[in-house]
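User: Can you write out an input/output pair for a complex, sequences first and structure second?

Assistant: Here is one pair. Inputs:
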Amino acid sequence: MKNLIMNRINQKLKEDKKLLSIYFTAGYPDINDTTTVIQNLEKNGVDMIEIGLPFSDPLADGPTIQASSTKALHNGMTSELLFEQLKDIRKSVSIPLIIMGYFNPMFQFGVEAFCNRCQEVGIDGLIIPDLPVDVYNDQYKDIFEKYGLINVLLITPQTSDDRIRFIDSVSDGFIYMVSSASVTGSSSGFGNEQTDYFERIASMNLKNPQIIGFGISDNETFTQATKYAKGAIIGSAFIKHITNYSISSISNFTDKIKQSD
Amino acid sequence: MKETYNINEKGYYGEFGGAYIPEMLYPNVEELRQNYLKIMAEPSFQKEFHALLKDYVGRPSPLYFAQRLSEKYNTKIYLKREDLNHTGAHKINNTVGQILMAQRLGKTRIIAETGAGQHGVATATVCALMGIECVVYMGEKDIARQAPNVARMKMLGAKVVPALSGSRTLKDATNEAMRDWINNPVNTHYIVGSVVGPHPFPDMVARFQAIVSEEIKSQLLEKEGTENPDYLIACVGGGSNAAGTYYHYLDNETVKIIAVEAAGLGIDSGESAATSVLGKEGIIHGSKTLLMQTKDGQITEPYSISAGLDYPGVGPMHANLYKTGRAEFIAITDDEAMTAGLELSQLEGIIPAIETSHALAIFEHKTFKPNDIIVLNLSGRGDKDLQNYIDYFKL
């Protein structure tokens, strides 16, 4: 576990600020956009990046990320190609990089081979929504740690306190707090139900900081979420932005999110 | 410990099964896992389940000795007549069980996925029976192909929602149902239609379908003086009628098991649904099993003339039966199946579902001994497939 302390994610979590993390789908909108998007996000003051490895059947994602995943696969994105595109990424950026993807493509690549390649190109962590914490803990934790990778685990408003404590004990970076019972890209705005949940988690004094995702789309929801948590993750809203405009107008998006900073 | 082909305590059949689900689905699946065996064991549950199977579904389904078919292939063929069930297939055994389960879990809304529409109809039927809201997800392509079943579901009061993502067929309908369950984690029960999905679904569905092998045992004893046939034969898509046929015989290796998959236009044609041959170990819809996928782990779209067999995965029980060699897997093409369907119609006066026709095509593939006792699950009736048969044979 000691090699995770210097992990870029943990260094970033120590900074005295609220973190903005952005998700995008690798190979979207065009197959060769992956590294350009990463560089533009860092240039525009984003704190952390989730690189989405597209999957044919993304069952935790709503229509926006389903569509970007389908397009990226159609463009020819694969695990191998993603690692190839990222091989020199550490020459140009120092921002924490996380790969978010479903388990089957990693399983086919070979979990250890996948983790090894992650370390080689400078990936800091993984988010795998359909790899359950107990399977991770029993079978893969040692491999992730061997390659210096943080596995980011999810909690939801329905997760019991006992299970949150267990997930906290298995985590070594941050906990991904799913804001509400929904797939990604759902309607914006948080009601009392969400803020009660945010408060409940904040009062649990977990060892890992929390970053809130799902349903964050603008300055208002970002500000609301980061009142209770260390940071927030934006995915679908960012994908919509680069779909409607272009990857060269990323600053328009990030400036709006951070307008009151 | 004695080797078993049934599920173990951790929810695996050998190396297959488990619950590879996003945390958002964990509370629902865990609630079910903790309660399903307890609820199924309650005398009041058993009483209600069996009363409905008897008076509503029409069980026990007959075990029919197919005289002319047997003469033609010079062996002894019994057909387990699941086609005579209410709604025309084995699917209703499971939906009756799960609707009672949902009620006991306090759920007030039902969702389901459907491919050809048979499971959707069976779900809409039990929801109407119990007066519970029902939403069925169905691929946009399948909605166009299976208009009569869409109409049936609507007539029964269900809402049919098109799955517009991915390939717009069964696997995408399943994804949409899972997304719905993520969005509605408290009041909704997901009636999974086959022995697929995260544990405990494969085991629970197999247990509800196990009424089939339970009846075979007593019916065969009456007719042949033995509970044990030489062979059990069933078609396998996800594998629920097969699981029901094999269930009480899984660990009785004197009974040989044959699973028939859909080869589509041929195993090597690129248009096939023979998962055991073409699939590799992986994760689909929350279960570790064999599935058809690209080298990069993207799930591919299978093909079969039968809309009930074109699932890219297979239930983990069957993946284990294949891997261990407990079952013999045979792949049957569209043409072989259609021919067998016509043959049964004209030899026995029974028009089978095209899924079942795949199982029936076994007799052109494999020679049995005159004294062999064979039980084949006639899993569904062919009414829904008439247009396909008519088009194929230009009747």
